[in-house]
Write a sequence for this structure.
């Protein structure tokens, strides 16, 4: 969704907008399981502030919706916000870990993991397909399973033959193809979140939960960069119609879908004609003035802390190289990368690889820094500030004559 210092800047802005310390959001940002939901709240607060006269966050001490929006017309709209996670997110994590365990074991046995394809299928149910996989702490038990050991031993015995294997208990099928090469691992399976009825639809489930919380007329804001249901208009419409038929307290629903692949967000407004306080045409036109594409989005944030601790990384940017004149060059280095390099946490080659040979060659050959300057970044675009070093070739060596 957003990177760490983007979220920090967004939090700073929202605390200025609401004129208060957003203690609960701060706490939710610290926990992986609630981080995406907290960022969604911040995105909504900032964006509605651009179309509002006033934004109050949790103004009532008792139970109330999240935000009270006051338009310049004097119209007040209560807003509740919810992030929609994939319903089978934990199962997805299990399948990712099983794949990692198999790859690690293949490497240990000197078998190319690129020759192994993965398929995770499951048992069809009302909510979709349920998979049976080992628990997160059962790596040792899984790799010592006789069928898994037999899969690897068959490959060792017949390395030039294609081999397919389906586990008798786990929802796992492995295919070994000796002709297959990298650089990508092949993995697939049935879409787990494939509800057969509207009540098993995760959008419906979240809306129904919100419906029961308050009787105050309000607008529900649903957002996600992960839920597969958001791309299914048929399921979205059935969830909306079913909820609107049950309540008059929901004035409408705004559905925000964030595509991390296209780095773009789009939203739809569904108004409830049966509501106690329906959205007016003026309300809807004003709400459609929001723009959720001010920020550059990154990969989805997992609901667990990743092992490599890079899941919520800071913004950085590209390494820039510009020729100035007389063989002088400028190297633009993202300030956080430079700081980490000076601290010994990383180096430029590790961050940018061999493509920037020209910059690395100049540094290795002893080019001299003749000036240093600063270039402002763009936190919304995910671009860090940069330190600009101007370098020129080293002078020719001077050998003093021997006085003797």
């Amino acid at each position: 969704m957003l990177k760490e210092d983007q979220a920090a800047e967004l939090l700073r802005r929202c605390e200025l907008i609401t004129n208060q310390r957003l203690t609960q959001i701060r706490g939710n940002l610290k926990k992986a399981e609630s981080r995406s939901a907290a960022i969604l709240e911040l995105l909504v607060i900032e964006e509605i502030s651009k179309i509002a006269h006033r934004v109050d966050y949790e103004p009532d001490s008792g139970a109330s919706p999240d935000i009270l929006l006051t338009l310049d017309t004097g119209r007040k709209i209560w807003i509740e916000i919810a992030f929609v996670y994939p319903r089978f997110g934990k199962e997805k994590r299990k399948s990712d870990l099983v794949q990692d365990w198999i790859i690690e074991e293949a490497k240990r046995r000197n078998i190319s993991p690129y020759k192994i394809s993965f398929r995770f299928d499951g048992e069809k149910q009302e909510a979709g397909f349920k998979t049976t996989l080992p628990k997160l702490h059962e790596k040792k038990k899984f790799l010592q399973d006789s069928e898994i050991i037999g899969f690897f031993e068959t490959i060792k015995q017949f390395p030039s033959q294609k081999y397919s294997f389906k586990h008798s208990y786990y929802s796992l099928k492995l295919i070994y193809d000796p002709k297959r090469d990298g650089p990508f691992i092949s993995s697939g399976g049935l879409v787990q979140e494939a509800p057969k009825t509207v009540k098993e639809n995760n959008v419906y489930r979240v809306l129904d939960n919100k419906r029961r919380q308050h009787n105050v007329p309000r607008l529900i804001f649903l957002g996600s960069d992960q839920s597969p249901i958001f791309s299914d208009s048929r399921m979205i419409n059935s969830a909306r119609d079913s909820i609107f038929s049950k309540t008059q307290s929901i004035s409408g629903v705004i559905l925000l879908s964030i595509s991390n692949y296209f780095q773009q967000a789009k939203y739809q407004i569904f108004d409830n004609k049966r509501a106690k306080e329906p959205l007016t045409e003026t309300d809807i036109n004003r709400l459609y003035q929001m723009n959720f594409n001010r920020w550059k989005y990154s990969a989805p944030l997992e609901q667990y802390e990743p092992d490599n601790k890079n899941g919520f990384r800071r913004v950085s940017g590209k390494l820039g190289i510009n020729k100035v004149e007389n063989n002088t060059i400028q190297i633009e280095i993202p300030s956080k990368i430079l700081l980490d390099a000076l601290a010994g946490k990383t180096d430029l080659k590790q961050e940018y690889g061999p493509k920037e040979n020209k910059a690395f060659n100049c540094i290795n050959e002893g080019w001299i820094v003749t000036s240093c300057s600063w270039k402002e970044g763009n936190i919304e675009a995910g671009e860090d500030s940069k330190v600009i070093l101007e370098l020129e070739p080293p002078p020719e060596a001077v050998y003093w004559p021997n006085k003797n």
